[in-house]
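Give me the 3D structure for LysR family transcriptional regulator.
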Amino acid sequence: MSASVLPSAPPAETALRRVTRNVPTELLRSFVAIAEAGSMAQATDTIFLTQSALSLQMKRLEDVLQQKLFQREGRRLVLTAAGVELVAYARQLLELNDRIMLQLGQAADPEPVSVGMVQDFADTVLADVLGRFRLEHPRARVTVRVGGSAELLEHFDRARLDIVLCLGRHAERSGAQTRIVAEDRMVWLGDPAIVDQSELPLVLLEPPCRFREAAL
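Predicted structure for LysR family transcriptional regulator (216 residues):
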């Protein structure tokens, strides 16, 4: 009776077969941006995510790899030994990813999208929204205009903006869809001691302003 023995796979190949997890490319892209910028604050200028969002991404990446990738030296983030090794692999993977998207993605560059929003939203949600949009649509071109609601709607009416995120209820526009995305209640803020005064000093923005109209 004879028996045959199959050759065993090399250790490296066996280890690769056991790996079933994937490293999300958006995490690697943020990781490389931070490594090149030296801080999360400076990386936000290129990756279009807030510092808190980048911090959560790096925590997730370290959890996936079970490795600490950064260490602090003063205010600067410095790569650990594992981080140095990863950044080389990450650049190669991202280059290959971008090449695939360039060759096999959309046949033509999409039309640019022009977005207008009031300062209230630009200060709070703009970075996160653009960051998520860029990850899902890496080839899309987006321009943002920040201004007052009336100004932005005027640009929309003249076909200079595709989407407007503004304050207040506005009349329906031909060929456009209007959707209320959130509602909030305006409140008065001030020193209780001035309530009984015959004249109240107010701090208001210049017209046109929805808050000014509501207050007066």
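Confidence is low (pLDDT under 50) at residues 1-7. Let me know if you want a second pass.
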